[in-house]
Amino acid sequence: MKVVMLNCSPHKNGCTYTALSIIADELKNQGVDSEIIWLGNGPVRGCIGCGGCRKSGKDRCIFGDDGVADIAEKLKEADGYVFGAAVHYASPNGAALAALDRIFYSAGKHLQFKPAASVVSARRAGTTASYDVLNKYMGINNMLIVPSTYWNMVHGYTPEDVMKDREGVSIMRAIGSNMAWLLKLLASAKGTELERPVIIPKEMTNFIR
């Protein structure tokens, strides 16, 4: 079992990375492998809904020059996910949203029915609004949202500050523990009727004036 964690903060080893590292440590304690992938701090193209990823039959975004398509390929093979972002103006940083738009549009079907959590990091405020935005990706994609003991956030201006946020640290540890538990439950259901739910076909309704 492996959990892939996407660090969408522009700071490779900053507060968001620190939060993800705490989760990784708890996963390791419970026998689950993990990998933290950094989105980077370069330009990230947003999704334009061109459908090129689906038309190709490979579920791969055709805009592959910024690394997002390669990240999506790694996510396809994982058993669980954590998406971490920094808070900018009471919302996840722009690169995070641009990347996740493309990942879920192109490869979302490969992430379905797998457990995932979102994590946000801020100096002070904007965390709950950002947490809500990230959770919507999972809520629209048949994913199991991993719970914790409070909303999934840490506070601090530096990684050292994050480690002093004792409640935040305990929240991250609980995410790791609950993720490991869910992965083990899902592994025990493989090959049985409980492996997947009964699939309800999606219907689209457009409202036209």
Provide keyphrases for this structure.
single chain, alpha/beta, seven-stranded mixed β-sheet, 7 helices
Low-confidence stretches: none
Q: What global shape is seen? A: globular
Count of alpha and pi helical runs? 7
Give the biggest sheet. 7 strands, mixed
Structural class, from secondary structure content?
alpha/beta
Average pLDDT rating: 96
The total strand number stands at 7
Measure the end-to-end span. Answer: 49 Å
How much of the residues is beta strand, in percent? 15-25%
- Please give the share of residues in helix: 40-55%
Radius of gyration: 17 Å
H/E series, N to C? EHEHHEEHEHEEHH
Describe the structure.
The protein has 209 residues and is of the alpha/beta class. It contains 7 helices and 7 strands, in the order βαβααββαβαββαα. It has helices at residues 15-29, 52-55, 68-76, 94-107, 127-139, 159-164, 166-188; strands at 2-7, 33-38, 80-88, 91-92, 115-122, 144-145, 153-155. Strands 1, 2, 3, 4, 5, 6 and 7 form a 7-stranded mixed β-sheet that branches. The N and C termini lie far apart (49 Å). 39% of the residues are buried.
In short:
It contains 7 helices and 7 strands; from the N terminus they run βαβααββαβαββαα. It is an alpha/beta fold.
Task: Describe how the helices and strands are arranged.
Elements: E1 2-7, H1 15-29, E2 33-38, H2 52-55, H3 68-76, E3 80-88, E4 91-92, H4 94-107, E5 115-122, H5 127-139, E6 144-145, E7 153-155, H6 159-164, H7 166-188
Parallel strand pairs: 1-2, 1-3, 3-5, 5-6, 5-7
Antiparallel strand pairs: 3-4
